Amino acid sequence: QVQLQESGPGLVKASETLSLTCAVSSYSISSGYYWGWIRQPPGKGLEWIGSIFRSGTTYYNPSLKSRLTMSVDTSKNQFSLNLSSVTAADTAVYYCARSVAGALCFQNWGQGTLVTVSS
Amino acid sequence: DIVMTQSPDSLAVSLGERATINCKSSQSVLNSSNNKSNLAWYQQKPGQPPKLLIYWASTRESGVPDRFSGSGSGTDFTLTISSLQAEDVAVYYCQQYYGSSYSFGQGTKLEIK
Which of B55, B59, B103, B106 should we substitute to test contact with A (largest number of A Cβ atoms within 10 Å)? Predict the structure, then answer.
């Protein structure tokens, strides 16, 4: 069973860059599937951030696209998220996830990590 | 961008009764390549990540009880729980994955009456 684990700073200063990594175990990223990031502000709903394929092909949420960079490192079996110029509105639990085969919905999820943006 | 709207925002149903949650997309999410709708349903319990229940609008994920079913096509979709169990108390989200930009509904909170 594939497992995903998010890691990164839990506190980021406003205007700086939020960087998270998702380590994948029991499955090789290079074997396929899409990999994604989803976030959830405290007490609110889910927001899709972006998805990436093993080749590096990316799909980004248009509302975040200008600040967002996603990458995949097949040698470390992990993928990453960088979100620049953060504000308090970026405070959320950030989840990484693996898609369903052939469909860009999310079958396997990490436990999530809370990132707080401080002023 | 496709906007997903769920109804109702919250719902209270008696144990053993049917629960129905609706999801409407602002444009069709019907995939012409396979004639399936790019629509998924998730269940989220407090402190947990979402759990995939249904994809392709009506395909039940492995291990999901058969009291959960999805229906609909194009722009209008429904998640039905045929006989509500106590463990089904959660927030339910729909998600469209059509094209290159994906989005979730705002969520429906399901409680026991």
Answer: B55
Q: CA–CA distance from B73 to each of B2, B70, B97 (Å)?
A: 15, 10, 14
Subunit contact A45:B52, Cβ cutoff 8 A: no
Does A102 score more than 90 pLDDT? Answer: no
Residues of A in contact with B44 (CB under 8 A): 46
pLDDT given for residue B25 in this prediction = 98
Specify the pairing of strand B10-13 against strand B108-112: parallel
Within 8 A of B52 by CB-CB distance, chain A residues are: 100, 105-107
Which one of B52, B56, B103 has the shortest CB-CB distance to A48?
B103
Average pLDDT of every residue of chain A: 96
The SS3 assignment for B89 reads coil
Q: How confident is the model over A55-68, as pLDDT tens digits? A: 889 999 999 999 99
Mutation target to probe the B interface, by most B beta carbons within 10 A, among A105, A107, A108 is A105
Torsion (CA) A31, B34, B50, A40 in degrees, nearest 10:
90
pLDDT of residue A32: 85
For residue A96, report the phi and psi dihedrals to the nearest 5 degrees: -105, 155
